[in-house]
Write a structure and sequence with these properties.
Number of helices: 4
Distance between the termini: 47 Å
Strand content: under 5%
Organism: Paenibacillus lacisoli
Structural class: mainly alpha
Shape: elongated
Number of strands: 0
Protein name: Transposase
Pfam families: HTH_Tnp_1 (PF01527)
Helix content: over 70%
């Protein structure tokens, strides 16, 4: 699955406005349906529609810092789960 950054998505949508979705998709090597989805998100969410790199779009109420902090919180939660599993594994081993 290809991932595109915010600038690429915004430029692709602008180009599709100028020359049409089919031509823009062909020129950029992007699926027509992907480009249509980007256009739909722009219509629904405005400037917050294209974060890029496959990450979900955010509402315009969230700042880039808030999005980054939420991502970091998710990573830390996953790390804690791994550590809990490791602790349980080693605790079983010590009981023997």
């Amino acid at each position: 699955m290809n991932r595109y950054d915010k600038a690429f998505k915004e430029e692709a949508v602008r180009l599709s406005d100028e020359i049409g979705s089919k031509k823009a998709a062909d020129q950029l090597g992007v699926s027509y349906y992907t480009l249509q989805e980007w256009r739909k998100r722009r219509t629904l969410h405005g400037d917050g529609a294209h974060i890029g790199s496959g990450r979900a779009y955010a509402s315009t109420d969230k700042t880039a810092r808030e999005v980054e902090l939420e991502r970091e919180i998710g990573e830390l939660r996953r790390a804690n789960e791994i550590l809990k599993d490791a602790l349980g594994f080693f605790a079983k081993d010590r009981k023997r």
